[in-house]
Amino acid sequence: MSGVIEERDLLKVQGAQAAAVRARRAAPAGRSHEAGAPADARGGRAPRQEEGVKRTAAARVLALLEAFSRGGGALTLSEISRYADLSLTTAHRLTHEVLEWGGLELDATGRYRLSGKFLELASTSTRALRLRESALPHLVDLHRVTGLTVHLTTREGGEVVYLEALRPHPNYTGENRMGGRLALHVTATGLVLLAYADPEVLEEYLDAPRRAFTARTPTTAAEIRARVEEVRRRRYAVAEGCLAERVGSVAVPLTGEDGRIENAVGIVYSLGQTDPRRLVNLARATADRISESLLRRDARPDPRTIAYNRRKAGLA
């Protein structure tokens, strides 16, 4: 197989598509999409409105916005209706209200996508975006050296959240994109974040059901405990074939300015095409440089971060 294999590819096939087919088959004929809510992009289902419970206007707007994380990017009005579990009439009205407010963009194909207004709002107070600002120049350097997909992640509940994702294929829209989510036990960054989380976080995760994506996915409590202990000993994680058969990833912990480990730096690679030990050393050096930049608390962002953001926005 040529090119770099993305860590998210198998998930689309085994998760969202299969779950959507099962949902359609299970729904009785003649019922609306609200009776058989579609699968989301991580293999789950869109929240259903309980019978007899009327959602508030705010809840409907939030469901509409959440539809874009479930649908994976640009959506038609019908897709918004299905993913948000809204009637087509309600979806049309709310979509155009959010569009007029500036929260959505409408492209030439009639699809809607979230606008940069949400990033603008979040950037005023979000710690994660400030971390990304400090880390980005070092992640760019790592991406250039390896030519591979590079991640900066954090943990929310039982999921990895991608704060940044630099990859050879910029149009990729899978879950390991910026803002995407994946289960902790299937990625190297997830195993690192589990290893350095509070003990009750690990126990809670082990008590919850876990999905196997390949024959090599660790799913039992014993398997995951063993992986976590290995990460603590080595101070890095390797996950090969856990999410997709021919894809591996390595990750190292990132120490914050307060000395806590709440983030990880990861690299994704195709099995058999590189030495994971080399990638671990490169990721570790990058994490060290990011930690040093956080301690310096520079008032102004690194010029490389400014240049990258301008290029991404089409301003340079």
Short characterization:
The protein contains 11 helices and 8 strands. It is of the alpha+beta class.
Query: How would you sum up the major sheet?
Result: 6 strands, antiparallel
Order of helices and strands: HHHHEEHHEEEHHHEEEHH
- Rg value: 20 Å
Helix content: 40-55%
Shape: globular
What do we call the CATH topology of the largest domain?
A: Beta-Lactamase
| Total strand segments | 8
CATH homologous superfamily (4th level) name of the largest domain: GAF domain
The quaternary state of the protein chains shown equals single chain
Count of runs of 4 or more consecutive helical residues: 11
Domain IclR-ED: 117-308
Biased composition (Low complexity): 22-46
InterPro entries: GAF-like_dom_sf (IPR029016), HTH_MetabolicPath_Reg (IPR050707), Tscrpt_reg_IclR_C (IPR014757), Tscrpt_reg_IclR_N (IPR005471), WH-like_DNA-bd_sf (IPR036388), WH_DNA-bd_sf (IPR036390)
Keywords: DNA-binding, Transcription, Transcription regulation
Topology readout:
Layout: H1 9-26, H2 57-71, H3 77-84, H4 88-101, E1 104-106, E2 112-114, H5 117-123, H6 127-146, E3 149-156, E4 159-166, E5 181-183, H7 188-195, H8 199-207, H9 221-234, E6 237-240, E7 247-255, E8 261-270, H10 276-296, H11 303-312
Helix pairs in contact: 2-3, 3-4, 6-10, 6-11, 7-9
Q: Key features?
A:
316 residues; alpha+beta; Arc Repressor Mutant, subunit A; Beta-Lactamase; 6-stranded antiparallel beta sheet; 8 strands; 15% strand
